[in-house]
Amino acid sequence: MGEWDWLGLAAAAAAAFVVTVGLCGILRRAHEWAQVRDLGDERRRLLPPGSLGWPLIGNMWAFLRAFKSSDPDSFVASFIRRFGRIGIYRSFMFGSPTVMVTIPETCKQVLMDDEHFVPGWPKATLELIGKKSFIGITPEEHRRLRKLTAAPINGYDALSTYLTFIEKTVISSLDKWAEMGEIEFLTEIRRLTFRIIMHIFLSLEDDNVMESLERVYSALNYGIRAMAINIPGFAYCRALKARKILVAVLQSILDKRRAMRAKEHSQKAKDMMDALIEVEDENGKRLDDEEIIDTLIMYLNAGHESSGHITMWATTFLQENHKCFVKAKAEQEEIRRNIPPTQNGLTLKEFREMKYLSKVIDETLRIVNISFLAFRQATSDVIVNGYLIPKGWKVQAWYRNVHMDPEVYYNPKTFNPDRWDGLVPKAGTFLPFGGGSRLCPGNDLAKLEISVFLHYFLLGFKLERVNPQCKVRYLPHPRPTDNCLAKVIKLSIS
C-alpha cells in the first residue's frame, strides 16, 4: 500500500472520529433538551450546572465505572473539577433527572426539609425493601410507624434483652472461628449478624433455615441498588424472586403467630415480630401484615448488612493501626475489671462506657460509607444554594462525598478515631445513619452489636489477613474482594 493510500485511510479515520464525536454531542444535547424543555427559559437558567449524560443511561455508566474502580470518589470529583465545589449539580441517575447535593450545607437543607423533599428511592429499592417500610411512606405515616416501632427496636428494655443473646452468640462464634483456620471473615460476620437479627426478629435459631434464608436475602440485597430491569439474568429480577420467597416465609410465621395469640390472649411478646403485632397507636390501630413484613425486611437490611460490614472494617482498621488497637483494648480491659463479680456478662451500663470504642465505630462509619447516598424527590420548586431543584426531580444526598471531603475532615482517608475528641459534628457533616426526621431508627441496635463484638475480639483475639492489600469492591457495599480472607487467632490470656 502506497503513501497516499495510508494518508487516505488516516484522513477517513479522522473524519469518522469527528463524525462520531459530533453525533455523540448531538445525542447528549438532545437528551438534555428532552428532559428540561418543559421547565421554561427562566427555570432552566436557574438549574445547577452539570450534565444529564446519555439518553436512557444518563450518568449511570460513569457512576458504575467509578464505583467498580479503586476510586469511587472520582464520580463526584468529576463534577467538582468541571463546575467547582458548589455542592449541587444536575445529572440523570437511575432513569430520572436528578440533582446531586454533595456538601454539608446542601445535604442539611434537603434532609431537614420534609415539606419540600419526600423519599425518592429508585424503583428497585422501593420494590425490594417494601412500599410500606420507612423509605416508601408519607411523612405522616413515617411519624406513626417510627413512634410505634421505637420501643421494640431501640428501647432500653429491648436492647437489654437483645444484649444477652448478642453476647452469647459473639463469644461462641469467635471461639468457633479460631478453630477453623482460614475463613472468609466478612462472610462469617454476616452469618453472625444474620443469626442475631433472626433471633431478635423471630426467635429463630435453626441453622439450616437461617442458612437458606440468608442466601435468599443476599440475592435480594444485590438488587437493591441495581437498575430495575426485570429480565432473567439481571440482579433485580433475581432479587424480586428472592423477596417473594422471603415475604412468603415471614407471612407464614406471622399467620402462625396471630393464630397462637388469638388462642392465648395473655401471651407475652418474645421477639420483635410479637412486639410489632402487639403495638398500637393512641387510637388503638395496629400495624397490618404488610407494614410488619416491610418493617422487618428494612431492619434486616440495616441490622444485617450494615452491622456486618462495619464490624469487619472496624476490626481490620484496629488490627492495622497498632496505637488505636492498644487504646481500644485498654478501655475494654478497664471495663472488664470494673464489672461486679456477681454480674454475668455485659449490661447497657458497660456499653455506654465504651467511649473510645464509640469513636472507633464512628470513624469506621465515616470512612466506609455503607449507605453512601440517600434519595429524595422535590414536591415543589425549591431553591438550594441559589439553584433551582424543579418539582418532581429526584435529589441525591451524597453522604460519602461529605465524609471524604478534605474541607470537612482533615486527611479524610486516614483512620483516626482521635479526630472525634471533643468534636460535636455540625449538622450535615456526619451522616452515616442519614439525617432529619428519617434518621435510621436502628442505629442504637447496630452500634450495640458492633460494640459487643469488638469488646470480646479486643480482649482475646487477633486477626491475620491473608491478602491485606487486596482490592476493595464498592457495590452494593464496600468490601474486600476476597471477603477478608483471614485467620482468627485466640490469644492466651494470663
UniProtKB/TrEMBL annotation:
It is found in: Membrane. Its EC number is 1.14.13.79. Signal peptide: none annotated. InterPro entries: Cyt_P450 (IPR001128), Cyt_P450_CS (IPR017972), Cyt_P450_E_grp-IV (IPR002403), Cyt_P450_sf (IPR036396). GO terms for cellular component: endoplasmic reticulum; membrane. The keyword Membrane applies. Pathway: Plant hormone biosynthesis; gibberellin biosynthesis; Hormone biosynthesis. CDD domains: CYP90-like. PANTHER family: CYTOCHROME P450 26, ENT-KAURENOIC ACID OXIDASE 2. Keywords: Heme, Iron, Membrane, Metal-binding, Monooxygenase, Oxidoreductase, Transmembrane, Transmembrane helix. One of its GO terms (molecular function) is ent-kaurenoic acid monooxygenase activity. It is a single-pass membrane protein. This is Ent-kaurenoic acid oxidase 1. It is an enzyme of class 1 (oxidoreductase). Belongs to the cytochrome P450 family. Heme binds at residue 440. The lineage of its organism: Eukaryota, Viridiplantae, Streptophyta, Embryophyta, Tracheophyta. The chain crosses the membrane at residues 6-26.
